[in-house]
Design brief:
InterPro entries: 6-hairpin_glycosidase_sf, 6hp_glycosidase-like_sf, AGL/Gdb1, GDE_C, Glycogen_debranch_N. Helices cover 29% and strands 26% of the residues. The chain is an alpha+beta fold. The strands form 10 sheets. Strands 1-9-10-11-12-19-16-15-14 form a 9-stranded antiparallel β-sheet. Strands 2, 3, 4, 5, 6, 13, 17 and 18 form an 8-stranded antiparallel β-sheet that branches. The chain has a 3-stranded antiparallel β-sheet with strand order 27-28-29. The longest helix has 20 residues. It is elongated.
Length: 646
C-alpha cells in the first residue's frame, strides 16, 4: 500500500494539514475521522462516531482526547487543536507536530517538544463500535501525559449547545459512561465537567451551515511515560458497555493486520491497487439486514444507485464475491413494481430512481460473468424478468418503455429528479432530464442483453429479450447522435416553452458525460467513435475525471462552493465527478485510444484530501479542489475497476 507521510511544513500549516483528512471505520457504518493537523474542521469529526439502525443514523460521541505533556520542569505543553468562534485557534498543538503518517490505513502523529517525542496511533475494532488511542514515548522523558476527553452525544448532522441539558456522565471502572451510550476507559480518570463554548468548524462555515457547537469536557486521563516505549492508552466504545474491548495496543495491531489482509485478498497489481482495495473496505458494512454499502463518509448512508454502480469495484475487484452475492439477494427482495428500493439516509424504503434498477441488472450480470455463479443468476432470474415486464407496462413516475421505439422514458411529475443528476434547489430539480436520458437507455439496452444471456444460461428462451434489445438498440442509434458529433443528453424532452408533459418536445444536446455509458458498458448500444470521444474529452475531461457539463454551456458553474442552494445548483452543472472516470477510460479503451495517462491526476489525488481515498466531487475549473465527501464509494470503486481492467 502507499504510505502517506507529511512533515512539519504540512502538519503545522492549517491551509495544508487541516484540509487533508483521515478516516478509520468500524465495519458497521461508524468511524473515527479528523485532519492531519488534528484540528476538527467538520461537525462530523470525532474519535467515536457510532452508527445507528442504519449507517446514516450516526451519532457523535467522543469528540477528542486533547493531549497535554507535563515536563520534569513542571511546564505544561498542550498538543490539542481547536478553533473557536472568536477566530482564535487555541491550543496550537500542530505546531509541535514533526510527522504525520498513514500506514496500513491507520493514522500516526508524532509531536516533538525539545528532546521529548510522543507518538499517537489510533484504530477501531472491526465489527464493533470501539476505538483505541495509544500514546507512546519515543524519545526523552520522563513526562506525564494528560488526556482531556471532550464529549457530546448528538446526531452527526447537528450540534449540541450549553443551553440544553448537560451530558450525563456516570462513573465506571477505569473511567466513565456518557449519556448511557458509550464508555471511556483509561488510566487515572479524573472527572471534571465543564462546557467548552463556541467550538468552530471551518468546513461547515464554508458550506453555509451552522459552524459552532459546545463540547463537554467530561474529565481527563493521566499516565506516566518514564522511558521510551511506555504507553498511555484510552478505549472508548458503544454497544455492550460491560464488555471491554481488548487492550488498545492489541486493537491497533489487529487492525493493522486486518488491513494488510484486506489489501492482499484483492491480489493487487501494485501499491495503488492495494491502497484502493483498502479504501473500498471502508464502504462495505454489515447491518442487521446483511452487507450494505455506505455511499460516502462522513454524511451519506446507503443508496441503491451508488451501491450498484460501485458493485464491481467494491466486491468483484476485491475478493468479496460471497458478500456481494448476499447483498444482491438482499436488494432483489426490495423490488416493487419493477423498481429497486432506494433505502436512503432517512431509513425509509423509497422508490425514486429511474436508473438504480438498471444498475442492479448490470451488477447481477457482472457478478455472474466474473464469478461464474450461475446459481445466483438462476435464482434471481424471475425477479429480473419482472423488472422488464414492469417497465414494459409502466411503473412509478411515468417510467415506461415507449411502445413507438422501445426506449425508456421517465419523468413528467413536478419536483422529481430520477436520474443520478438529482439535485434540487428549494424543491425544484436543477436537471430534471425528463424524457429519454442517454445513460438510462444505454443501461436499459445493456440490461436486456445481459438478461438475455442469463436466460439462455438457465436453459430458457431469450428470443423476446433479444427482440426488445435489438429494437431499442436500433432506435438508440438513430435518436441520440447529434450533428455536433457527440450524443444528446436527453431526447423527447419537454420543450422549454411547454409545461412538463406538454405536446412539444426537443432533444437536449448539451455536452454532458452521461453519454459515456453508451460506449463503455459491456453491451453498449454504440461502438466507440474515437472522433466523438475526443470531442467529449476536449470539453469535459479534467485530471480528476469528467465535468458534468461543458464550460461553454450557459448554465456552467465553475465552482462547487457556498451554501446548500448554491452548491446544489452547481452539483451537476460543471462540477467534476471522479466516478465518471470509469466509463470514460472504458470508452477510450474500447475505441483503441491511449489510456495510460488518464488516471495520473486521480492517483495523485489519493494523498491530497481524503487520504488514501477519492473524493465525491471537485471544482470544474483548476485547480479542481475537492468538494463533497472526501471519501466516496463509487469514486474509489470505478478507479479501482478500470485500473484492474488494464
Amino acid at each position: 500500500m502507499i504510505e502517506f507521510g507529511f512533515g512539519p511544513g504540512v502538519c503545522g500549516e492549517l491551509a495544508d494539514g487541516a484540509t487533508r483528512e483521515w478516516l478509520v471505520t468500524d465495519g458497521l457504518g461508524g468511524y473515527a475521522m479528523g485532519t492531519v493537523s488534528g484540528l476538527r474542521t467538520r461537525r462530523y469529526h470525532g474519535l467515536l462516531v457510532v452508527a445507528g439502525e442504519t449507517p446514516a443514523a450516526r451519532r457523535v460521541g467522543l469528540v477528542s482526547l486533547d493531549p497535554a505533556v507535563v515536563l520534569p520542569s513542571g511546564a505544561r505543553v498542550r498538543l490539542g487543536a481547536h478553533e473557536w468562534n472568536s477566530g482564535v485557534v487555541d491550543p496550537r498543538g500542530f505546531e509541535y507536530l514533526e510527522r504525520f503518517d498513514l500506514v496500513d490505513g491507520l493514522p500516526r502523529w508524532r509531536w516533538r517538544i525539545g528532546d521529548v517525542v510522543i507518538e499517537r496511533e489510533l484504530a477501531m475494532t472491526y465489527g464493533r463500535s470501539a476505538v483505541a488511542v495509544v500514546h507512546r514515548l519515543v524519545a526523552g522523558g520522563p513526562v506525564r501525559l494528560d488526556l482531556s476527553a471532550a464529549c457530546t452525544w448528538r446526531d452527526a448532522h447537528g450540534e449540541r449547545r450549553a443551553d440544553g441539558p448537560t451530558p450525563r456522565v456516570e462513573p465506571a471502572d477505569g473511567g466513565a459512561v456518557v449519556e448511557g451510550a458509550y464508555r471511556l476507559a483509561g488510566p487515572d480518570w479524573t472527572p471534571e465537567g465543564q462546557w467548552w463554548l463556541g467550538v468552530h468548524h471551518r468546513e461547515e462555515a464554508a458550506r453555509g451551515l451552522h459552524p459552532d457547537e459546545d463540547l463537554w469536557c467530561a474529565g481527563r486521563f493521566s499516565g506516566a511515560l518514564d522511558r521510551p516505549g511506555d504507553t498511555v492508552s484510552v478505549l472508548a466504545w458503544a454497544g455492550d458497555l460491560a464488555e471491554e474491548p481488548p487492550p488498545a495496543t492489541q486493537v491497533v495491531a489487529a487492525a493493522r493486520q486486518r488491513n494488510r489482509a484486506v489489501a492482499a485478498a484483492a491480489k493487487p497489481a501494485d501499491a495503488v491497487d492495494a491502497t484502493l482495495a483498502l479504501a473500498a473496505d471502508a464502504f462495505v458494512v454489515r447491518t442487521a439486514a446483511g452487507p450494505d454499502v455506505v455511499a460516502g463518509y462522513p454524511w451519506f448512508g446507503a443508496w441503491s444507485r451508488d451501491t450498484m454502480t460501485s458493485y464491481e469495484g467494491l466486491f468483484l475487484c476485491t475478493g468479496r464475491a460471497d458478500e456481494g452475492r448476499e447483498l444482491l439477494r438482499s436488494y432483489a427482495a426490495t423490488l416493487s413494481e419493477g423498481m429497486l428500493a432506494n433505502t436512503a439516509d432517512t431509513g425509509r424504503v423509497e422508490y425514486n430512481t429511474v436508473d438504480a434498477t438498471l444498475w442492479f441488472l448490470h451488477a447481477v450480470g457482472r457478478h455472474v460473468t466474473v464469478t461464474g455463479d450461475t446459481d445466483l443468476g438462476d435464482e434471481l432470474l424471475p425477479a429480473l424478468h419482472g423488472v422488464v415486464r414492469a417497465h414494459l407496462a409502466g411503473t412509478r413516475y411515468g417510467i415506461a418503455v415507449d411502445p413507438d421505439d422501445g426506449l425508456i422514458t421517465q419523468g413528467g411529475t413536478p419536483g422529481t429528479a430520477l436520474t443520478w443528476m438529482d439535485a434540487r434547489v428549494y424543491g425544484v430539480p436543477v436537471t430534471p432530464r425528463v424524457g429519454k436520458p442517454v445513460e438510462v437507455n444505454a443501461l436499459w439496452i445493456n440490461g436486456l442483453a445481459g438478461l438475455a444471456e442469463l436466460t439462455e444460461l438457465a436453459g430458457q428462451d431469450p428470443d423476446e429479450l433479444w427482440r426488445l434489445h435489438d429494437r431499442a438498440r436500433e432506435a438508440f442509434g438513430k435518436r441520440f447522435p447529434t450533428p455536433a458529433g457527440w450524443l444528446h443528453d436527453v431526447v423527447d424532452a419537454p420543450a422549454p416553452a411547454y409545461p412538463l408533459g406538454g405536446a412539444a418536445h426537443h432533444d437536449d444536446d448539451l455536452l454532458r458525460p452521461n453519454q459515456l455509458l453508451a460506449w463503455s458498458l459491456p453491451y453498449a448500444p454504440l461502438e466507440p467513435d474515437p472522433v466523438a470521444l475526443r470531442r467529449v474529452a476536449a470539453g469535459l475531461f479534467t485530471p480528476l475525471g469528467p465535468r458534468s457539463l461543458a464550460p461553454d454551456a450557459p448554465e456552467f458553474a465553475p465552482r462547487h462552493r457556498g451554501g446548500p442552494a448554491e452548491r446544489d445548483g452547481a452539483y451537476h452543472q460543471g462540477t467534476v465527478w471522479p466516478w465518471l472516470v470509469g466509463p470514460f477510460v472504458e470508452a477510450y479503451r474500447k475505441a483503441g485510444l491511449p489510456t495510460d495517462d488518464l488516471l495520473v491526476g486521480l492517483v495523485g489525488h489519493l494523498g491530497e484530501f481524503g487520504l488514501g481515498s477519492v473524493s465525491e466531487t471537485a471544482d470544474a475549473t483548476a485547480p479542481h479542489a475537492a468538494t463533497g465527501c472526501p471519501f466516496q464509494a463509487w469514486s474509489v470503486a470505478e478507479l479501482l475497476r478500470v485500473r484492474r481492467a488494464r
